Amino acid sequence: MSTAMEVARVFALEGEPIDAKPYGCGHINDTYCVCCQREGKPQRRYILQRINHNVFKDVPGLMRNMIAVTAFLRQAVIAEGGNPDRECLTLIDTRDGEKYYHDPDGNYWRAFIFIENAITYQTVEKPEHFYYSGCAFGKFQRLLADYPSATLGETIPNFHNTASRYRDFEQAVKENASGRARAADCSILTDLLAKGELPLRVTHNDTKLNNVMLDDVTGRPVCVIDLDTVMPGLSLYDYGDSMRFGTNPAAEDETDLSKVTCDLNLFEQYTKGFLEECGSMLTPQEIENLPLSAKLMTLECGMRFLADHIAGDTYFKIHREGHNLDRCRTQLKLVADMEAKMDTMKQIVEKYR
Ligand code: ADP
Ligand code: GN1
Ligand code: MG
Fold first, then answer.
1. Burial class of 334 by CB neighbour count within 10 A (0 to 12, 13 to 18, 19+)
2. How far is the centre of ligand 1, averaged over its atoms, from the C-alpha of 242 (Å)?
3. In this predicted model, what pLDDT tens digit does every residue of 49-68 receive, in sequence order?
4. CA 117, 119, 125, 127 torsion: positive or negative?
5. Which of 71, 89, 215, 248 is most enclosed, with most CB atoms within 10 A?
6. What is the DSSP string of 297-339?
7. What separation in Å is there between the alpha carbon of 256 and the centre of ligand 1?
8. Predicted local distance difference test score (pLDDT) of residue 122
C-alpha cells in the first residue's frame, strides 16, 4: 500500500514533503499532517487524508459535492471580506490537476491547506467555545443558504433518517454478528431448566440487599422480607440477583460509570455465605452456573430498565428524568466488568463449593 509520504508527493504541495504523521482524533478517515521544506522560507504544513471508502461507497460523488461546496463557500467568504484560505477548507490539486488521487490499491486521497493557529477541542472546556461553535455552524448555514441543495448527492443515503436507523438497529440486534447482543446467553438458564438439567425450586426472585433485615447490633441476618415475588424459580436467580445489586460498590443509578464495578471481594463474601448455607443441597450444574447467573441477572435487569425507559417509565419508580436510563447504564457496565472477571469469579465459586 502506498505510504502517506509517497502520496504526499502526488499533490502540488509547496516545497518538498519531509514528514507525514498521523494526525487528529477522527473516527472515519486516516488523517496525516504533511510537513514541507521550502527554500529560504519557513516550513509549510498540509492535511492529507485517505478517505474511508468502506463508509463512503461513492467517493467520486462525495468529492463532487466537496469541490462544489468549497468553491461556493470560498466565494461567499471573499464576498464578506474574509480570508478564504483560513475560513474555508481549500483542496490542493494533484500535480495532474485533479482534486483527489485514486491510488493503484484503490484508495482515495485528498489534501487540504493546513489551517494554522487554530485548534479543535475534544470537549467543551469553556462555555464560550461552545458559543463560538454555534456561531461557526450558523454561519455555515447562512453562507450556503442560496446553494441549490438538490444538486448535491447523498454521500451516505439515509444518514439522518432516524426511522431507517431504527430499522438498522433492529436488524443489527437480530443478526448479532459480533455476538455482543448476547441473545444466545439469555436463554442458557431457561434452556437448562427446560431440559431438566436445573431443578425448579421455591425462590425469592428479588434478592437485593435491601430485602433482607440485618441485626442493628451484630449485623447478622434476621429476616428475608419483600416476599411479593416468591415463586417457582431457579436458585441461580436468587444468587445472581444478589450479586447484581451487592457486588457494585456504587449506587444502582450512579451516573459516573467509572465507579461501577464488580468488587471481587464482595463477590467472595456473598458466595461464601450463600454456599455455607445451601451449597450442600445445590446440584453440580447449579454451582457451575453461579458466576454466569450473576452476569445474566444483571443483563436482564439492564434490559428491564431500558425497556421501561423506552416505554415511558411506567414500571419502576423514577426520581429524575432519565433515571431508568442511568440505571440501565450501570447494569450494562457491570455486565462488561463481570465478563472481564468471569474466570476469577469461577475460581472463587470453586473455592467454596
Ligand atoms: P419494595 O417491594 O418496594 O422493595 P419492600 O417490601 O422491600 O418493598 O419494603 C421496602 C423497605 O421497607 C425495605 O427495604 C425495608 O427497609 C422496609 N421494610 C419492609 N418490610 C419491613 C419489615 N417487616 N420490618 C422492617 N422494615 C421493613
Ligand atoms: C425492583 O421493589 P424492589 O426495589 O425490591 C424489582 C426487581 C428489580 C429491582 C431493581 C417486583 O425491586 O425485580 O431487580 O427493582 N421488583 C419487581 O432494583 O419488579
Ligand atoms: Mg424491596
1. buried
2. 16
3. 999 999 999 999 999 999 99
4. positive
5. 248
6. HHHHHHHHHHHHHHHTS-SS--SSTTHHHHHHHHHHHHHHHHH
7. 28
8. 87
